[in-house]
Amino acid sequence: MLTSFSSYLFVGAHPDDIEIWAGGLIFKIHERNKTAKVYCVVLTDGSAGQGSVQERYEESMEAAKMLRVDSYEFLNFKDASLDFNVELSKVIANLIRKYKPDVLVTHPASDKHPDHAAVGLATSKALFLAMVSPEFLDYEPHLCRNVLRFVSDPFSSPSSRVYVDISEVYEMKKELIAKFKTQLDVLEPYLQLNELYGRMIGVRAAELFEPEVLIF
Amino acid sequence: MLTSFSSYLFVGAHPDDIEIWAGGLIFKIHERNKTAKVYCVVLTDGSAGQGSVQERYEESMEAAKMLRVDSYEFLNFKDASLDFNVELSKVIANLIRKYKPDVLVTHPASDKHPDHAAVGLATSKALFLAMVSPEFLDYEPHLCRNVLRFVSDPFSSPSSRVYVDISEVYEMKKELIAKFKTQLDVLEPYLQLNELYGRMIGVRAAELFEPEVLIF
Amino acid sequence: MLTSFSSYLFVGAHPDDIEIWAGGLIFKIHERNKTAKVYCVVLTDGSAGQGSVQERYEESMEAAKMLRVDSYEFLNFKDASLDFNVELSKVIANLIRKYKPDVLVTHPASDKHPDHAAVGLATSKALFLAMVSPEFLDYEPHLCRNVLRFVSDPFSSPSSRVYVDISEVYEMKKELIAKFKTQLDVLEPYLQLNELYGRMIGVRAAELFEPEVLIF
Amino acid sequence: MLTSFSSYLFVGAHPDDIEIWAGGLIFKIHERNKTAKVYCVVLTDGSAGQGSVQERYEESMEAAKMLRVDSYEFLNFKDASLDFNVELSKVIANLIRKYKPDVLVTHPASDKHPDHAAVGLATSKALFLAMVSPEFLDYEPHLCRNVLRFVSDPFSSPSSRVYVDISEVYEMKKELIAKFKTQLDVLEPYLQLNELYGRMIGVRAAELFEPEVLIF
Amino acid sequence: MLTSFSSYLFVGAHPDDIEIWAGGLIFKIHERNKTAKVYCVVLTDGSAGQGSVQERYEESMEAAKMLRVDSYEFLNFKDASLDFNVELSKVIANLIRKYKPDVLVTHPASDKHPDHAAVGLATSKALFLAMVSPEFLDYEPHLCRNVLRFVSDPFSSPSSRVYVDISEVYEMKKELIAKFKTQLDVLEPYLQLNELYGRMIGVRAAELFEPEVLIF
Amino acid sequence: MLTSFSSYLFVGAHPDDIEIWAGGLIFKIHERNKTAKVYCVVLTDGSAGQGSVQERYEESMEAAKMLRVDSYEFLNFKDASLDFNVELSKVIANLIRKYKPDVLVTHPASDKHPDHAAVGLATSKALFLAMVSPEFLDYEPHLCRNVLRFVSDPFSSPSSRVYVDISEVYEMKKELIAKFKTQLDVLEPYLQLNELYGRMIGVRAAELFEPEVLIF
């Protein structure tokens, strides 16, 4: 997978979502495929949690540098307020058309966190909208053929699983997560999950994703 | 996927199951990875359907030649009689230990066909048994880390999907299926499904699988 | 439905199961279609509940007379001991082949009562076995194309529903149920459910079924 | 079924939805019940797909003539933009009240196509709204007691199935579908599905529906 | 449970929802824990059903007296018009923050009644919003740690169940329900369900709830 | 809960299952209710994992002492070989009749571990068998009215949850788990889960259970 795809779009609801659930994957993409493009988009301003909007923005920018992404965009929707509707689907459809990724990685629709669920549901609609020709969208249509979902709700485990062995980049991931100073107590248990997932497949640490569509 | 794995075990309940649901995948494996090992096992004798047991065995042998597999084993259980229990799980666990595949490809537990479902359910147990150390099994323990399921019940569609684009080998697959002379009317609609799956991803023909676990 | 089908097989796990869940339907079948055939089979001897095996047998015979069925068979398996396996599936497959019904009506696989669930699961396998040609079955193959399931677990409501308006035969059904003297306290709440189902569709009383396959 | 109901309302999200999923059923209704009323409503203008809005409208009008429906209404909502909310539910509730059908046939809520899903979800709410007395609706309340869902997402197969044997009208259905000149490549695989469904029940061609509520 | 929690918030979509599904529980709370606080909130005005808005309000006030609740609030949203969105979630989040209950009892998200479902879905979001710090909410954040759902859709039975034995207060509950003079025919079948639930656990009458989270 | 129930039966498939999933609960039961009875039964001999059967037996006996249980029974079925069938159900039904607990705590039927799933499924049947009067069981019938399931498959999270706050006994639980010397590397990640569950409800450590039936 890591060698055959050439561009990835990661969409997170909040600052730190992409890093905590897929930071290791991004590091591995770079290691395996020097020319792969990685785009990140964060939908909300993070105002509902700990830390100020400005602090969280700066933490994300620090992380972005470390991740060496090709683009890191903030859309600044109000945190804790995303609704699943056509408007949100259009926003995500436009992102898919703008970045034209091979692979989209984002939240699952079944996530208990309401913002995550809204993004997850709207993405399903967006994938469809991005492909057809509605005049209310910008950019040219794009069929994004591979979709992975974060396991951003650890209590909503997928029956289909893609594990990414992040053992070789795990120290870097810990360093990456340490950038999010305002969120450390929230994020640490998820690093423990990386170790638990690792044990499941017999390695030091792993990230877990739900494959929605993969094409070989 | 097709380049990173080095051995595959396909387990089908009946003669022709492996070919109709995964024949294209096997051709592609050979094209992409000259050294990959492919093992096939058919559990029952096919006595419940059209054609005699002998005819069906010969058809499978013809197919096996065309597929250039490293092994093609018949276990000759009675067709239409597989029960999901520890005995069947042991049989499959022993296969996993014997062939030690990177990837196991077999029926899903949700399949409406009772033999398929029995195999699907027993496989989940077998994957576990193959890994631990029960003295009642032969061969050394093996952890098979990648599992794909056929979509052998077209009315039981998976929400997680792996499509394999078989456009380039589709003519060969049709030739392969033509070897199963006693089953042609049963098998043809499934070739039409390959074309339908192809349309879904914008290619001529595709095979569809449900990913259970994939490791990258 | 009641005019277009010409034969029905009802399979109940225990004495009184057919009557309490489908007694009204049987009365209505007779009213709408004088030539329709109705066959009933009870799998167990009823020994686990109230009343002796002999008493329960006699109650069923009384009910059978009132229902004017074409056949009422007792298989006398041990109550509370049905296991879902190929053996039970063969028993039911043979019943399907023997009676060759247009419509099969029996328990759902999702039923919480273990005997009901075993019958429900085995029936799915039996429908398949009845159709193919395994030499271990008696009678000629039969494709039973219509299948309804009792809602014999009132806590396991189907999302697909067939209501049969039994208002016109409800007094007869109450009389029928009164034949089961050893079971009256168990059966009465289910008559209340008939009234509740009736309210849902705006009539006095109704029986509820889950349609599995219906062909028009 | 086809003789006992006297009026049908078909609601499709786009031009051609009703015809491709239920065209055969409409032909059969006319054959079995000369006095049955058939009403069709198309919610969106079809602007997101191939063909202009005007072309698609004309194709539908051609089809409507062939189907001999009692009414064929276009509501002209923007294609690819339906949201599931009270507003859409009111629209459908008003249609139920206006046409007062015995049977409503429309998309399922589980459909992957976002417009289909919005219609499917809103219909559940609409059936309820049509029945109670909210002052914000037009027309008198109506309890629509029979509901069938299209299988408009072939990857979202229902466990409860109604097959309509359309063998006798299949040539007419193919002629009907040929009216949709701008959509032929999209529609053809679905005709193949009609043949696949037919094989499942041993006939030439069939349409498949998910029964939600049927009353006998 | 009834002794260890000190405050309860009941949220019903319509007048009489709280009483019919949880009236017995409220009586028992008072019997077991003299100091427990009970707050009730009714979201809509009840204008879609039988009886005028004024009549229904008065019936609820009569019931409130009998229930001896600490607060009984009417929010007067339009009946049959609740949409699941961030706005409704904010309303419920504010209620959780205002009353700061140990236990929240409300409709399940799976309820077929559209208003019930909207409340059920919005509550999941509200529980989250009540806990974080969005500036658009009033009152201080509150983590409500125990959540029970009504079984307000008797056809949507929970697999996890909390039964409350209301035998000792059942006469009072019947008296309570009799206050709702405009709704008697609607409510009576639900009292029969209380008796059916009672039989399931071997007592005279019981109320059934779905436990979402309980902490001991 | 911890004060109102007077006897508990814990059934684990393997040595250490009860301790790792419910050790904290047992300590808390003793603290809250000095007279509560606690019975433990382990079904298999533990021969499939690390450590000899003898070593694992001795570890369990050490743990039993620390837990101060009223009975700790080993049934010595072969590890990794439990099948779900009437025989296993009878075994568990006899345990329910023998110990007559208020509360039964055991594995869930949805568990991915095959032995756990067999126990989980057989328990549902056993609860029924324990209640009726089949002559093939020993002891008098018993209706066990409260049932909790372990979350012994951390990837199969229940939507209904009971958390037990074990903060006050967490040090003791760690000491308890340390008795299982042959299993330490397997067990440690589950202690981390206790801490993760604790964070979810704002305490140091918690055990998680799925409530099946609870009566108040």
Descriptive notes:
The structure is a homohexamer of 216-residue chains. Chain A is of the alpha/beta class and 216 residues long. Chain A has one domain: Rossmann fold (3-Layer(aba) Sandwich). Chain A is 42% helix and 21% strand. In chain A, α1 links the parallel β1 and β2 (37-44). The longest helix of chain A is centred in the middle third of the chain and has 18 residues, at 114-131. Chains in contact: A-B, A-D, A-E, A-F, B-C, B-D, B-F, C-D, C-E, C-F, D-E, E-F. At the A-B interface, β6 and β7 of A face β6 and β7 of B. β6 (161-165) of chain A pairs parallel with β7 of chain B, so a sheet runs across the interface. Chains A, B, C, D, E, F: This is N-acetylglucosaminyl deacetylase, LmbE family. Chains A, B, C, D, E, F: Pfam families: PIG-L. Chains A, B, C, D, E, F: One of its GO terms (molecular function) is hydrolase activity, acting on carbon-nitrogen (but not peptide) bonds, in linear amides.
Structural class of the helix and strand makeup of chain A?
Answer: alpha/beta
Give the count of helical stretches of chain A: 6
Mean pLDDT of chain A: 94
Low-pLDDT runs of 5+ residues of chain A are none
Total strands of chain A: the figure is 7
Principal-axes geometry of chain A comes out as globular
Oligomerization state of this entry? homohexamer
Organism (chains A, B, C, D, E, F): Fervidobacterium changbaicum
Pfam families (chains A, B, C, D, E, F): PIG-L (PF02585)
GO molecular function, one term (chains A, B, C, D, E, F): hydrolase activity, acting on carbon-nitrogen (but not peptide) bonds, in linear amides
InterPro entries (chains A, B, C, D, E, F): GlcNAc_PI_deacetylase-related, LmbE-like_dom_sf
